[in-house]
Amino acid sequence: MTAERKLASQPFTIGSNRFSSLEVTPVFDAYWRFAAERQEIYFRRVEGRLSPWTDDPILKQFRFTNAYRAADRVSQYLIRSVIYEPNFDHDPEEVFFRTILFKIFNKIETWEILTEQVGALSWKAFAPAAIDKVLSKAQQNGGRIYSAAYIMPPVKLGPTGGVKHRGHLALLELMMRERVYERIQETKSLKQVYEILTAFPSIGPFLGYQLAIDLNYSSLIHHEESDFVVAGPGALDGISKCFVNADNLQPADIIEFMTDRQELEFERLGLSFKSLFGRRLQLIDCQNLFCEISKYSRVSHPDINGRAGRTRIKQGFRDHGDVPRPFFPPKWNLDVPTSVNLTR
């Protein structure tokens, strides 16, 4: 049996529910410890230190995302090399086109093989047949063109011939023809962006939320990441492992609760959490951390079963080499040192 405890503090609310205490499992504390150590690893790598970057055997062996979503390798590539690349056209329609095209596959290697063989990717020069040819050849040669980070459901638009990526290219073309980027620019909140995106076929709640976050990195819109959150399947499992009984609470309310309490919890545990150059964890980050603690606890707390019932971590850690100097949306105004050898 695991030792459960009451999370006590000044009275607090989760959604419309008011508590004087809340029953949590040991995974709740592990959530904050994981966030702090994963962020330490991030800074050690950015500083150019040699591995190992942690003494935690689980973090050494298995792959986990960063504490901040925008700091992950693929997000960094999207922000730096797709959205804000100086040599690309920065008209709103082109920024939207590139962002959605990249995120359909969410794989750096797919983007690079397309730019190498098709040329600069733009709506003005959109050639779905040429893209289809490159992607089909890559698959025939045994390559994976989609990331495993989340599922891109197939969509039946046009004569796909049963080829998944043809449907997604048709979906992108439909969004461009309907000038979705203009509607998104008129939105007043992240939730409105999400609602526009999820109205299209194959874009479900979690995928729609992820795409909204990615578009919000760009200059198309300027919504706060603290505005809105949608819990994915992994986060739901993580929540079920942290709280003894959270079934009567909304997942989004729990994520907001964690975001609001972060400084208090790090202090309570004696953790010196290093923020992202002054940016505190946002809703999207705390959502992701629930997903990551769902995986981490399969090894650290195997006796605590979540709603998903998974017991193994599938992906091992793979070193992708040096971490480039971080680049974040300029509108965030983060004070990122110019030197790779950061000092804090």
Structure explained in plain terms:
This protein is mainly alpha-helical. Helix content is 47%, strand content 5%. It is built from 13 helices and two strands; from the N terminus they run ββααααααααααααα. It has helices at 26-46, 57-61, 73-83, 92-105, 108-117, 128-140, 164-177, 180-185, 190-197, 205-216, 233-242, 251-268, 283-300; strands spanning 5-14, 17-24. The protein has a two-stranded antiparallel sheet with strand order 1-2. Helix 1 (26-46) packs across helix 13 (283-300), helix 9 packs across helix 10 (205-216) and helix 11 (233-242) crosses helix 13. It starts with a strand and ends in a 44-residue tail after the last helix. Mean pLDDT is 90; it is low at 340-344.
The 3D shape can be described as globular
What share of the residues does DSSP label as strand, in percent?
Answer: 5-15%
Using DSSP, what is the number of strands?
2
Largest β sheet strand count, sense and barrel closure: 2 strands, antiparallel
Structural class by sheet pairing and helices:
mainly alpha
Low-confidence stretches: 340-344
Side-by-side strand order of the widest sheet? 1-2
Relative helix content: 40-55%
SS element count, helices? 13
Give the rounded overall mean pLDDT: 90
Rg computed from alpha carbons, rounded to a whole number of angstroms: 21 Å
SSE ordering:
EEHHHHHHHHHHHHH
What is the rounded distance between the termini? 41 Å
